[in-house]
Specification:
Dihydrofolate Reductase, subunit A; single chain; eight-stranded mixed β-sheet
Length: about 325
């Protein structure tokens, strides 16, 4: 059976006391009844659809007692929710309730110990849906043990600030995929969520399967070599000039900024080396040009011995000859 939880929730994640002010005052909670302003016809249709798929029910003790005190009194044959709750098999997680003392009809079992394993065994019997409604403490166990196959929520446009929360004891990040969603005219949002396969879970599976960090590093190195080979095949060049850009486009999003910065630094470093090379080449050309002009300056100095040193100095090569490092930089720009 598929284990599916159904909850009403505020925008700030509270699930306590949705129906009545005095429904659940544990912990001094005094904001019960917060679903009433937004519980319109569309929300009612969604809730009715939940119970139409009920094949069995699983409750915590507090929710069980609360519902057992109300729903058996609803005798309207036209109420599908009441009819389904009255006839569906029920299972209760409790250390204080005895099965022979269960007040609600068709209560088949009381789970008092080894709760996760007992629920797994219950899921393996039959088909259909094993539904959970409310049951805050039980819900935390189901989330922590990854027992839920689906979570159906109706989020109401209200905040209450404090109270029991749907995700109250989460110890690690968990993702969900949205299997369906509907927005009611009142603003309430109904959604169906299925647990997504997270990277954390994937790492846990790798550890259980015996994979080591060395194996992971070897796989990454092999993937990098494949990317370099593919880049060389496509461009006909050595892959060193494109490896960082290629990796940046294929690595996870959190790695891309660092790889992009490294690629930018590499490009700037290449431009700097090219400029320095151009400057050195220009200086060599200037030296050769000056050496070629030296005999002409000596000859003119012998014929004009009366010229002052300043006049001779004025004949020295200047920037007009084009032999300056600045010209090399201008050519590169």
């Amino acid at each position: 059976m598929r284990l599916v939880a159904h909850e009403f929730m505020t925008l700030d994640g509270v699930m306590q006391g949705p129906g009545r002010r005095d429904e659940d005052t544990e912990g001094g909670f005094r904001w019960g009844g917060w679903v009433a302003p937004s519980f319109d016809e569309a929300v009612g249709e969604v809730v009715s659809g939940w119970f139409e798929r009920t094949d069995a029910l699983l409750f915590g003790r507090r929710t069980y007692d609360m519902m057992a005190g109300y729903w058996p009194q609803v005798t309207d044959d036209g109420d599908p929710v009441a009819q389904r709750l009255s006839t569906a098999p029920k299972h209760v997680v409790s250390t204080t309730l005895r099965l022979d003392e269960a007040p609600w009809a068709v209560t088949e079992s009381v789970i008092a110990d080894d709760v996760p394993e007992r629920i797994r065994a219950l899921k393996s019997t039959g088909d259909g849906e094993l539904q959970v409604h409310g049951s805050w403490r039980l819900l935390q166990t189901l989330i922590a043990e990854h027992l839920l196959d689906e979570l159906r929520l109706i989020v109401f446009p209200v905040i209450v600030g404090e109270g029991k929360r749907v995700f109250d004891r989460v110890t690690q990040p968990t993702g969900f995929e949205v299997a369906g969603a509907r927005v009611a005219p009142s603003g309430a949002v109904a959604m169906s969520l299925t647990p997504a396969r997270s990277s954390t879970a994937a790492r846990s599976r790798s550890r259980r399967s015996g994979a080591t960090s060395t194996d992971v590093a070897q796989r990454r190195a092999a993937a990098l070599a494949s990317m370099r080979l593919a880049a060389r095949t496509r461009t006909g060049r050595q892959p060193a000039s494109v490896s960082l850009a290629t990796i940046a486009g294929s690595r996870p999003a959190r790695m891309r900024p660092r790889l992009t910065r490294n690629a930018g630094l590499l490009r700037r470093s290449r431009r700097s080396r090219a400029k320095r090379s151009a400057i050195v080449s220009q200086r060599e050309r200037c030296t050769q040009s000056a050496s070629a002009r030296m005999p002409r300056r000596r000859a003119s100095s012998t014929t004009s011995a009366t010229k002052t040193p300043s006049a001779t100095k004025s004949r020295a090569p200047s920037s007009a000859t084009g032999c300056t490092p600045t010209d090399a930089l201008r050519e590169m720009s």
